[in-house]
Amino acid sequence: DTAVSQTPKYLVTQMGNDKSIKCEQNLGHDTMYWYKQDSKKFLKIMFSYNNKELIINETVPNRFSPKSPDKAHLNLHINSLELGDSAVYFCASSQGAAGYTFGSGTRLTVV
Amino acid sequence: AQSVTQLDSQVPVFEEAPVELRCNYSSSVSVYLFWYVQYPNQGLQLLLKYLSGSTLVKGINGFEAEFNKSQTSFHLRKPSVHISDTAEYFCAVTSNTGNQFYFGTGTSLTVIP
């Protein structure tokens, strides 16, 4: 069983479209995250949820909206996609300070 | 808040040679430190972590790191690298609340045959 699973793995879409990325963890962790990794491999935190409550909301365009229906799921919805949104998006989960478990990433390409 | 600096963006090294990837952190509170590895086109995988206890931490794939509080460093080492170690390596720090992890900018390790 995959501990943190994201779908889809690849996403190619046109500018202006709306898309969602789903994330699920089966580790029983309380906290989940979305990170964006750009072409230079920099990892930037976008959002963090703890038990369905938003605790970190970095400077991210409001076209990005996270949704956590329960503590095992954290989805990312993106409206009006732009070329600059092209990146790899990683979901992760953690329990306390023991470390993150990452998903395998979603490579988003906006054309 | 904490921060992490990885001093080397790219490290080329010949196969079977030793390697050290440098990581320095800053924090006003006690920290936990981590190294993650990202193989090409894959997610990040935990290599090792320091939470408490012995300052020399051993991880997977023959890597180890040493926590040095006085120098605020957590350098990653391997005595003999393999081609398969070619990857991006990230150092990360968090406080004991673990609310947020801070990642370095990554070091690209290339092992040359």
Protein architecture, described:
The complex is a heterodimer of chains A (111) and B (113). Chain A is mostly beta strands and 111 residues long. Chain A has no helices and eleven strands. Chain A has strands spanning 4-7, 10-13, 19-25, 31-37, 43-50, 53-57, 64-70, 73-78, 87-94, 100-102, 106-110. Chain A starts with a strand and ends with a strand. Chain B has 113 residues and is mainly β. Helices cover 0% and strands 53% of the residues of chain B. In chain B, a hairpin with a 6-residue loop joins strand 10 (87-95) and strand 11. Chain B is globular. Classes of the chains: A mainly beta (111), B mainly beta (113). The A-B interface holds A 31, 40-43, 45, 48, 50, 55-56, 90, 92, 94, 96-105 and B 32, 34, 36, 38, 42-46, 49, 51, 88, 90, 92, 94-101, 103, 105-106, 108.
The unreliable regions of chain B are none
**What is the helix/strand order of chain B?**
EEEEEEEEEEEE
The span between the termini of chain A is: 33 Å
Please identify the oligomeric state: heterodimer
Shape of chain A: globular
Considering residues with a beta carbon less than 8 A from a beta carbon on another chain, report the largest interface and each chain's count.
A-B, 23 and 26 residues
Number of strands of chain B: 12
State the major sheet of chain B: 6 strands, mixed
| Main sheet: strands, sense, barrel of chain A | 7 strands, mixed
Share of helix among residues of chain A? under 10%
* Beta-strand residue percentage of chain B: over 45%
> How would the global form of chain B be characterised?
globular
Q: Give the uncertain stretches of chain A in residue-range form.
A: none
Q: Average pLDDT value of chain A?
A: 92
What is the average per-residue confidence, as pLDDT of chain B, rounded to a whole number? 92
SSE pattern of chain A, N- to C-terminal: EEEEEEEEEEE
Distance from first to last alpha carbon of chain B: 41 Å
